Amino acid sequence: MCINAQPSAKLGVLDLREVNFSGQTTVPLSGEWRVYPGEYYAQERIVDTAGLFFDPANGWYGERGGVFRKQQTGIASYDLTVVISEDAPNLSVKIPIINTAYKLLVNNEQVASVGKVGKFDETSEPYWEYFTRSVKLSPGRNNFRLIISNFDHHRAGMFQPIVLGEESHMNTIRNLRVGSVLFLTGCLLVAGVFALGLFWFKTSDVSGLLFFFFCIFYSFWVSTSSYVVIPSLLSDWTWISVIRLEYMTLAFSIIFYGYFINATLKENVKSWIFHLCTIISLLFISVTLFGEASLFTMVYPYFIAFMGIIYFLIIISALKLALFSHKLTWINLIGYTALCLVIVMRVLTSNGVIPEYKGLDVIGNITFIFSQAMFMAIMFGRKYRDTSLAALAASRTRDDFLNTMSHELKTPMNAILGMATFLEKSKLSNSQRDKLKAIKSNGESLMSLITDVLSISEVGTGKLKLKNTVLSIESCVDSALSLSKQHLNKEKVKFTSYIDPKLPKHVRGDSSRIKQVLMHVLNGAFKSTSKGVVELQVKLDSQDEDKVCVRFELSDTGNRNHDGSASSSFSLFKVGSLSGKSQKPAEGEMHMVKELVELMGGALEISRVNTKGTKVVFTLALQTFDENTNRRTRSMFTGHDVDPTLKVLYAEDNPVNQKLIVLMLDALGLKVDIAKDGNEAVEMATKKYYNIILMDIQMPVMDGLEASRRIIQNSSARPIIIATTANLAEVDKRKCFEAGMNDFVSKPINQEELKLTIIKWQGLKKYLDDSDDSIVKLSS
Q1: Which letter, b or e, does each residue of 413-445 get, where b requires 16 or more Cβ atoms within 10 Å of its Cβ?
Q2: In the 8-state DSSP scheme, what is residue 647?
C-alpha cells in the first residue's frame, strides 16, 4: 500500500482533486481538522468558522483555563472538508482504533459508529473495532465529521489517521489484514502443538511446555490487539473485557516466554532476571484484572518499556553467548530480536509514534515462529542424540557387566558340575554318593538361578533371542523334573505325569527356555505342596504343517499365598484371584515366566483349584520337524563316534576347567593340547595344525576373539574353532562369527553336547576334504 505524504489538510480543508485514486494509492486524512472541544455536533451544520485546528491523529486537545492542551477525557467534534475531482472512483475509508467511542458522518450520513458517544460518562459507552466502510462522495466539497468521546482509557482519541482510498483496493487491504492475523494465529497454535509434542516425548524438558503456553497466550494477544479479531467474533464482550484480555495475555506471554528462554539458556542467563519479570508481570495482571481502566491503561506503556529494557539485556547476553560459545544461539537470537521488534512496533503504532507497517509485523512474527520452532527441533534432536548415546553407552556397560558376571559365575560352576559328573562315575559309598548328589543338585540349582538372573536382564531389555534347534519334549520334561524333584516331599506328596503319545518325537524350538519355564512351575508346585498330589500333563493341543502347539497343565493341592502378595515358593508369578475362574497373568504379577512363554508364542493362565490348590496352564507354539530330512543330513555329515585321530587344542585360563576338558575328551578317545591364554594358542596353532580348536572367549594377555582372528590369518589350512563361553547373547554370537569362529558350546559344558558338536564338525570337514569339486554341491 502506497500512502502519499502529500496532500495535508489546511484550516479544515483537504484538496484531493489532483490525487489519482486508481491502483494502490491511498490518502491519510491528516492535517488540520476543525475541532470543537466539549461539543457534540452530529447532524446540525456547523456555521462557526472561528474553531480550533488540530490533527486528530496527534492526540486529544481541550481548553483548560483559556489554554488548549492535551486532555484524556471528555468529548470533541472534528470537522473536515474534502474536495475531490469529478472522475474519482468509488472510495472507502479505513478507520483505526479510536479511544474509546466515536461516530463518523460523511455529508451528514452516518458511515461508522463504535460504542456509544456521549457528553458524560453515564451516557458514553466504550468499544474498540476496526472499520473499512464505503463512502458516497460527490465531486467537489464533501463534509467529514468525527465525534469522539472518552471517559475510560488513559489515552484519548486516535493515534493513526483515517485513510481514504479506492473501494476495491481498501477491501483487499482489509481482507489481507484479517487473513494475516488468522494466519499468524494458526502458525502460533501449530508451533505450540509442535512444542507440546516435543514435551510429551520428553517430559523432563519443560521448555516445550513453556513454549506451548506462550504460543496460546501470544496468539490471543495477536488476535485482540491486531484488528481485534476475537472481540469481533465475540461481539457480546464489553470493551473492558476486551482490553483486559489483551493486556493480560501479553503479560502471560512475557512470563512463559521468559521461562522458556531460561530453560534453554539456564546455564548462561541468570534466573533472577526472569523471576523479576514474572513478579512485575503478575503485579500488572493484578492491576489489570482488578483496577480501573484508566489505571491499567496508564501503567501499560511503562510496563512495556520496562520489559523492553529487560529483554534487550537478554538479547545482549544471548549475542555474547552466540559469538563466543554456542553457535546454535544465533537461531534463538533471531527469534528474540524479531519478537521484541514486533511488540515494540505495535506499541509505538498504537500510540501514534510511528505509522503502521503491517508487512513488517507479519514478517517479524513469521521469523520469530520459525526460528523458535527450528531452535527447539535442533535442541530436541541434539538432546535425543545425546540421550540415545548415553543409553547406548549404559546398555554396553550393562552388557559388559553381565558378560563378565556370566563368565565369572559360570566358569567355576562349569568346573564344579563337570567334576561332580565325573566323580559320580567313580566307585563311591552310599554316604559319599548322597553327599555328591547334594553337591550336584544344589550346583545345578545355582546354575539355574544364574541363568534366570541373566535371562531376566535380557527379557527386560528385549534382547533375548530364542534358539531354533531340534528337541524332544519328553527329554525337556525329564531334564526339568530331574532338577526340580529335590523340592518334592516324596513321602507325603504323590507326583504323576502324563505325556501325550500323539506328540511328535522331535520338534524345533529352544530347549533351554522350555526347561527353564518347566523348572519354575514345577518348583512352585513342589515347594507349596507339603502333602497331597502334584500332577503334570503334557498334551498335543493342535498341529499343522508348520507348527505344533503343546499344552502343559500342572495341578497341585498346595496351600499357596493367594492374598495378592508375592509367594515365596512361587516367586516369579502369583495367583491374584480368590474366585474359581481362570485368571490371565496380565491381571497378576508379570515376570520372566510369562515373558518367556509369550516369546515362544504361547500364553500362561493361573487358576484356583478346589479353594486350595493351584492349576498352571501354558501353551507353547513350536515348529514341526521332518525326521526324514534329519536322517539324510546326519548320514551325510556325521557318524556315531568321535574320530580319535583328530588333533584338538583347548585355550582356557582356568586350571580346573582345563583338567575337566582333558577328562571329557579323554573319555571320547581324544588327546588335547592346552593353551593357558590366547597368545599361547596362536603360537601353538602356528607351529602345529589342529583340526579343532576349543577357544574360551575371556582370557588374559589375549582374548579368544583376537586369538581366533590371528590363527585364521596365519594358518594355511583353516581349523574348526568352537567357542566355549558363558555368554551366548546375540551380540556375543555376532562377535564370534565376525572373528571367524564356527560354533558354540555353552558353559557349563555338557559332555554329550561337546561330543555331538565335535561329531558334527568332523563329519562336515571330512566330507569337504574328500570332495574333488572345488565347489561342493549338496544334494536335496
Answers
A1: bbbbbbbbbeeeeeeeeeeeeeebeebbbebbb
A2: -
Q: pLDDT tens-digit profile of 465-511?
A: 677 888 888 888 887 887 777 667 777 888 888 999 889 888 988 88
> DSSP string spanning 602-644?
--EEEEEETTTEEEEEEEEEEEE--HHHHHHHHHHH--SS--T
Residue with grid cell 516466554, as numbered in its chain: 257
Please calculate the CA angle 442-446-448 and round it to the nearest 5 degrees.
115
CB 32 within 8 Å of CB 58: no
- Cα–Cα distance list, 195 to 67, 113, 191 (Å): 57, 42, 6
CA-wise closest residue to 680 among 669, 688, 668: 688
Output the nine-digit C-alpha cell for 594: 510369562
Angle at 183 between CA 181 and CA 187, to 5 degrees: 115
pLDDT for the residue 736: 86
The SS3 assignment for 376 reads helix
CA angle 482–486–490, rounded 5-degree value: 105
Residue 431 neighbours by CB under 8 Å, 6+ apart: none
CB count within 10 Å of CB 364 equals 22
Beta 25-28 vs 2-3: how paired, if at all? parallel
Residue 142 CA to residue 27 CA, distance in Å, equals 15
Three-state SS for 649-693 is EEECCCHHHHHHHHHHHHHCCCCEEEECCHHHHHHHHHHCCCCEE
Strand boundaries in 169-263, DSSP class E: none
CA-closest candidate to residue 519, choices 613, 618, 593, 619:
593
Q: pLDDT at position 252, please? A: 95
Over residues 691-707, mean pLDDT: 90
Beta pairing, strands 163-166 & 131-135: unpaired
Q: Strand locations in 151-243, DSSP E?
A: 157-158, 163-166
**3-class state of residue 722 by DSSP:** strand
Rounded CA separation 718/721 (Å): 9
Residue 215 is placed in which grid cell? 504460543
Question: Would the CA dihedral through 408, 411, 414, 416 be positive or negative?
Answer: negative
613-624 and 547-556 strand pairing: antiparallel
Contacts of 535 by beta carbon, 8 Å cutoff, 6+ apart: 495, 496, 497, 498, 553, 554, 555, 556
Each residue's pLDDT tens digit, 505-544: 889 888 878 888 888 888 888 888 888 888 999 999 888 8
Q: Please give the span between the terminal C-alpha atoms of the chain, in angstroms, as a whole number.
A: 84
**What angle (nearest 5°) sits at the alpha carbon of residue 260, between those of residues 258 and 261?**
65
Burial class (CB in 10 A: 0-12, 13-18, 19+), 34: buried
Let me know: does 35 contact 56? Beta carbons within 8 Å: yes
Spatial neighbors of 486 by CB under 8 A, at least 6 apart, are 441, 442, 445
β-strands 720-725, 692-696 pairing? parallel
Please name the residue ranges forming H helices in 462-502: 473-484
**Rounded distance between C-alpha atoms, residue 149 and residue 121, angstroms:** 9
Q: Best-predicted range by mean pLDDT among 278-282, 328-332, 374-378?
A: 278-282
For the stretch 339-368, pLDDT in tens is 778 877 777 776 667 777 767 878 888 888
What are residue 371's phi and psi, to 5 degrees? -65, -40
Q: How far apart are CA 577 and CA 563, in angstroms?
A: 8
Judge contact between 759 and 638, C-beta under 8 A: yes
Q: 553 is written with which cell numbers?
A: 497343565
Contact yes or no for 72/150 (Cβ under 8 A): yes
More confident position, 695 or 751: 695
Answer yes or no: are the C-beta atoms of 658 and 418 closer than 8 Å.
no
- In the DSSP assignment, the letter for residue 77 is E
Residue 626 CB-density burial (10 A; 0-12 exposed, 13-18 middle, 19+ buried): exposed
